[in-house]
Specification:
Helix content: 10-25%
Radius of gyration: 15 Å
Bound molecules: carboxymethyldethia coenzyme *A
Structural class: alpha+beta
Shape: globular
């Protein structure tokens, strides 16, 4: 479905620490874990669509987010087909894009972020899965 929720990103200082709550206490399993060097984060995707994000560098947007606001909800990701065209249409409609062109995110998906000031304070990520 177009613009269905793909995952919800939560910024954490340490994935290992966060897993004590999400996995040990809530009982969720990790379906996939990887480092995304381009975004300077390590991600652990849980089976229910929660994505834990740990910064791998002080320069990471996630490190800056945690420094400013503390751990917590970081972004909402929506699925789209034809991401490049969707971005052009959003730009034409006056939406403030962080990424004007798709880049590569976790799992090799095409991703792009929209600025929170265009989305009522929420960082929105669009993703296009290629499989
Ligand atoms: N959600 C909501 N608002 C956010 C935010 C977030 N995640 N991150 C920053 N903001 C707000 C700040 O609070 C600030 O608001 P005010 O101007 O009202 O104070 C404003 O956006 C600017 O924030 P900043 O701290 O000055 O930071 P920058 O402008 O340097 O960067 C942003 C902000 C959103 C452009 C940057 O964090 C970014 O490019 N994010 C997208 C990339 C990203 O987050 N990657 C990690 C995820 C990786 C993955 O899922 O694979």
């Amino acid at each position: 479905m177009s613009l269905a929720i793909d995952h919800i990103g939560i910024a954490v200082k340490s994935i290992a620490d966060a897993k004590k709550f999400w996995c040990d206490q809530l009982g969720l399993k990790v379906s996939h874990e990887e480092e995304v060097p381009e975004q300077k984060v390590r991600v652990a995707i849980l089976e229910n669509g929660i994505e834990l994000l740990e910064p791998t560098s002080p320069e990471s947007p996630v490190a800056k987010f945690i420094e400013k606001r503390g751990e917590g909800l970081h972004h909402v990701t929506l699925q789209t087909g034809n991401l490049a065209d969707r971005l052009k249409a959003l730009k034409a409609a006056g939406v403030d894009l962080i990424d004007e062109k798709p880049r590569v995110g976790a799992g090799g998906a095409g991703i792009a972020f929209l600025h929170p000031k265009s989305a009522h304070g929420v960082l929105v990520e669009l993703c296009e899965h290629h499989e």
